[in-house]
Amino acid sequence: QVQLVESGGGLVQTGGSLRLSCVASGTFFRVNAMGWYRQAPGKQRELVAEITSIGTTNYADSVKGRFTISRDGAKNTVILQMNSLKPEDTAVYYCNAYIYNYVGSLDVYWGQGTQVTVSS
Question: What pLDDT, on a 0 to 100 scale, did the predictor assign at position 84?
């Protein structure tokens, strides 16, 4: 069974920083792409940032220049460093990973979500 466990959310003032971490654990062959999504109240879940197995990154326009995604392949971990936070960044943040199992299929997994609240 594969699990994604997130940590690092919380309450911060406008302009502050937070660092989110997500670790993939369980029995699997290899982690492929990993990413972060967020969902604010009354809104659809949206991509924040993603990173491939070779380190190629993609960011939502709203976070470019403020957020940085990175990963530690050996530890199956993805990090989201969030700087210059704004109230509109307030949302539940979800970790996402595409993971190969030992029979060759690629499945997508989600973390349980971590709340990020930015006060004005």
Answer: 98
